[in-house]
Design brief:
The complex is a heterodimer. Chain A is mainly α. Chain A is built from 13 helices and two strands. The radius of gyration of chain A is 23 Å and the shape is globular. Chain B is built from eleven helices and 14 strands. In chain B, the strands form three sheets. Chain B has a six-stranded mixed sheet with strand order 6-7-8-3-9-10, sandwiched between helices. Chain B has a four-stranded antiparallel sheet with strand order 2-1-4-5. In chain B, α4 crosses α5. The longest helix of chain B is centred in the middle third of the chain and has 18 residues. Classes of the chains: A mainly alpha, B alpha/beta. The interface between A and B is medium-sized, with 24 and 31 residues. Bound molecules: adenosine-5'-diphosphate and magnesium ion.
Chain lengths: 316, 304
C-alpha cells in the first residue's frame, strides 16, 4: 500500500503544475506580508489604548441598539467585540498594537482556501486523468484489488492537502516573524464563545485555526475525489467543488436565515470555529451535531466513490 | 503441454446486447495464440475480461489454473499485457514509468528493469520523457512494462496497430523469443490475417462475439500430401476417372480433385491417352486467408 502512495506522490511531483501551485501560495504569503508592511501605521503605544477601547465599546453598544433584529450576524459580531474589549480593560491586556509574527500567521489563514483550491484540483484529477489518458488500465491489470488503488489515491490527496497547509503555515511563520518580529511577548489570544471570553496560547490557537479552517476544504476535497471517481470527469469535479468552496457558505447562511433545515446542509457544519469563537449558523446546533453530520457526508462520499470505482467496467 | 489460460462459456452483455456470446477456448503454455476478427468482433472486450478490466456476465476464466474472479490476485499475477494502446505517463521518463509499474509487483529488482529495457532495445532512450517517444518506442516500452514481473501469459491487443513493417517484424521477433526462451504463452489479437499467420501457432476466429473457428496455422504444411488441383478440361474424362476410382468435383470450365503431387503427371498422362483435351492444370491452395474470408463472409460482414 505505501508503495502505491509513493507512486501517486511521484506522479504529482513530476508535474510542473504542482510547483506552480506551491509558488502561488508563497507568492500569496509574500504579497500579503508586503501589503501589511507597507500600510502598517506607526506604533501609537502608551496608555491611550484604554480610552480608545472605552470609546469603541460605547460606539459598538450604540450601533447594537440601533440595529434591526434581522441583522443577526452583524449583531453577534458586535457582541463579541464588546465582550473582548471589555475583557481587555478588566484584565489590563493591551490589544496588539502592531502586526506580529503571530498575528500574521493568523491573517494568512485566509489563504487556506487558496491551498484548498489546489488540493481540490489534485483530487479532481487523480482518478479522472487516469481514465482520460487510458493509464487506468495499467493500474487495474495488476494483481492489486481496486479498493487499494483508490484508497492509495485518496490518502495521497489528503497528504497533499496537509503538505500545502504546511507550506502555507511555515512560509507565513518565516515571513511573519522575519518582517514583524514576535511582538511584545504578550502572546495570549482572546477567544469568545457562548458569551464568555477565554485566554489561549497563540500557538495552540493558530494550529486550531488551521485545522478547523481545513475541515470544509477536506470535505470539498473528498467531494471532488468522489465526483472524479464516479463520473471520471476532471472539469466537472473541479467546477462543482470550487463553486461550492466559493459559494457554499454564503448560500447556506442565506437559507439559514429563513429555514431551520439549513442545518443539514454540509456547509452549515464545516465551520467548526463557530462553536469555539462565535455562534452557530442555526440556533440550537451543537458541536456533536456538526461532527455527526460531517461523518455522514464523508461516509456518503466515500461509499459512492468506492462503490462505483470497484464495480465499474473499464473501457478506457 | 500445460494449459495457460482457459475460457469457459464466457458471455458479456452490455446495454442489453450480447457482445460476447458463449466463448470457450484454451491456450497452451508456450504457444502464440492469435485472436482474429474484424473490427467490432469483440476481441478487445474478451481481452478486457481476461485482464480483469471488465466483469463477465457469465462464464469462467482460469489463468494458470486460478479462477480470475475468486482468486483475483493470484490469477492476475500471472498476466502481463497491453490492452489497446500502450498508455504511459507522458510526463515521466520511460524508466520512471517502469519504476511505477515495478512498485506494483512484488520482487522486481533494478537488474530486472535493466534486463527488460535491454530486451526491448530501449537502453539508449530510457531516461527520456515518454512524450518524445515514437509509437513504436511506446509499444516497446509497453512490452517492457508487461514483462517486468515475468508473467506466464502475455496479452497483446492489436500490438501491431500503427506500426510500420519494421516495427511489426520487431514485435514478431520479440514474441518468438519470449515463447521460445521463457516458455511464455502469448495471446495476440488482430484484424489482419496476414500478420497473424506469421506470428501465431493457432488462430481463433471471432465474429459478432462468437468464436467461429480455431485453426492450426501450419495445417497446410502438415497436410503436405494431399492438395487440390484444378484441371481445365473438356468432356470425356468421366468414365476413365471413375474407372480408376479418382474422386472429382465438376466446377466451371473443368474439374477439381484431391491429388498427391506424385499422382499429377500420371493423371495428366491418363487423360491425354483418353483424348481428353487439357488446357490448364493448376494447384489450388486454400490459404487461411480464403478460409477466413469464407468464414467471415458467411457471417454476413466483411473485414474492414
Ligand atoms: N462500453 C460499451 N457499451 C456497449 N457496447 C460496446 C462497448 N464497448 C464496446 N462495445 C461493442 O462491443 C463490440 C465489440 O467491441 P470490441 O471488443 O472493441 O471489438 P474489437 O476489439 O474486436 O474491435 C462492438 O460492437 C462495440 O460496439
Ligand atoms: Mg479492439
Amino acid at each position: 500500500m505505501h508503495k502505491l502512495i509513493v507512486n501517486e506522490w511521484t506522479k504529482i511531483f513530476k508535474r510542473a503544475g504542482t510547483y506552480v501551485m506551491i509558488a502561488m501560495i508563497l507568492l500569496g504569503v509574500v504579497a500579503m506580508g508586503t501589503l501589511i508592511k507597507m500600510t502598517e501605521e506607526p506604533d501609537q503605544a502608551g496608555d491611550q489604548w484604554r480610552d480608545e477601547l472605552s470609546q469603541q465599546i460605547k460606539e459598538d453598544k450604540k450601533d447594537l441598539k440601533d440595529m434591526p433584529a434581522s441583522a443577526g450576524d452583524m449583531k453577534r459580531f458586535l457582541e463579541k467585540d464588546i465582550a473582548i474589549n471589555q475583557y481587555r480593560l478588566d484584565n489590563e491586556i493591551a490589544p496588539p498594537s502592531e502586526t506580529t509574527g503571530w498575528s500574521f500567521i493568523d491573517e494568512s489563514s485566509a489563504l487556506i482556501s487558496f491551498a484548498g483550491l489546489f488540493a481540490i484540483i489534485i483530487a479532481a484529477g487523480i482518478v479522472a486523468s487516469e481514465f482520460s489518458t487510458g493509464t487506468i488500465k495499467l493500474l487495474l491489470i495488476r494483481p492489486i484489488r481496486r479498493y487499494k488503488i483508490l484508497l492509495s489515491k485518496y490518502v495521497t490527496v489528503v497528504l497533499f492537502g496537509l503538505f500545502m497547509l504546511a507550506v502555507l503555515f511555515i512560509s507565513s511563520a518565516a515571513l511573519g516573524f522575519g518582517l514583524f518580529g514576535t511582538g511584545d511577548g504578550n502572546s495570549v489570544h482572546l477567544a469568545y464563545a457562548d458569551g464568555e471570553v477565554i485566554e489561549q496560547s497563540q500557538m495552540l490557537h493558530l494550529v486550531k485555526i488551521y485545522l478547523l479552517s481545513s475541515i470544509d476544504v477536506l470535505m470539498l476535497v473528498t467531494l471532488a475525489f468522489m465526483i472524479s471517481a464516479v463520473f471520471r470527469n476532471n472539469s466537472l469535479a473541479i467546477g462543482i467543488s470550487i463553486f461550492l468552496l466559493m459559494m457554499g457558505g454564503n448560500v447556506t447562511s442565506l437559507i439559514a436565515a429563513k429555514y431551520d433545515w439549513a442545518k443539514y446542509i454540509l456547509f452549515a457544519n464545516t465551520n467548526l470555529m463557530q462553536y469555539f469563537n462565535g455562534t452557530p449558523v442555526v440556533e440550537g446546533m451543537t458541536l456533536g451535531f456538526s461532527i455527526v453530520m460531517l461523518c455522514i457526508y464523508f461516509i456518503l462520499f466515500m461509499a459512492l466513490a468506492f462503490g462505483v470505482f470497484t464495480k465499474r467496467d473499464v473501457a478506457a | 503441454m500445460g494449459t495457460a489460460l482457459e475460457l469457459k462459456n464466457v458471455t458479456k452483455v452490455m446495454k442489453g446486447k450480447k457482445i460476447i456470446d458463449d466463448v470457450s477456448f484454451t491456450v497452451k503454455s508456450g504457444e502464440v495464440f492469435g485472436f482474429l476478427g474484424p473490427n467490432g468482433a469483440g476481441k478487445t472486450t474478451t481481452i478486457r475480461m481476461i485482464a480483469g478490466l471488465m466483469k463477465m456476465t457469465s462464464g469462467e476464466i482460469f489463468i494458470c489454473g486460478k479462477d480470475r474472479e475468486k482468486e483475483f490476485e493470484e490469477a492476475l499475477g500471472h498476466i502481463g499485457g497491453i490492452v489497446e494502446n500502450p498508455e504511459m505517463y507522458k510526463y515521466l521518463t520511460g524508466y520512471q514509468n517502469l519504476k511505477q509499474y515495478a512498485r506494483m509487483s512484488k520482487g522486481v529488482t533494478k537488474q530486472k528493469i535493466d534486463e527488460v529495457v535491454e530486451f526491448v532495445g530501449l537502453t539508449n532512450r530510457i531516461h527520456e520523457k515518454v512524450k518524445t517517444y515514437s509509437l513504436g518506442m511506446r509499444q516497446r516500452l509497453g512490452l517492457a512494462q508487461s514483462l517486468l514481473h515475468d508473467p506466464d501469459v502475455m496479452i497483446l491487443d492489436e500490438p501491431t496497430n500503427g506500426l510500420d513493417p519494421a516495427g511489426i517484424r520487431e514485435i514478431r521477433d520479440h514474441l518468438r523469443k519470449l515463447t521460445r526462451e521463457k516458455g511464455m504463452s502469448v495471446i495476440v489479437s488482430s484484424h489482419l490475417l496476414s500478420e497473424m499467420e506469421m506470428m501465431c501457432d493457432r488462430i481463433a476466429i471471432i465474429q459478432n462475439g462468437k468464436l467461429v473457428n480455431i485453426q492450426n496455422v501450419h495445417d497446410e504444411a502438415e497436410a503436405e500430401t494431399a492438395h487440390r488441383y484444378f484441371f481445365e478440361v473438356e468432356s470425356g474424362y468421366a468414365s476413365i476417372l471413375k474407372e480408376k476410382g479418382i474422386e472429382y468435383q465438376e466446377v466451371e470450365k473443368g474439374i477439381e480433385m484431391e491429388l498427391e503431387k506424385d499422382q499429377v503427371p500420371n493423371v495428366i498422362k491418363m487423360l491425354i491417352e483418353h483424348e481428353v483435351r487439357i488446357f490448364e492444370v493448376k494447384l489450388i491452395s486454400k490459404s487461411l486467408e480464403d478460409r477466413f474470408l469464407e468464414i467471415t463472409e458467411k457471417g454476413g460482414t466483411t473485414i474492414a
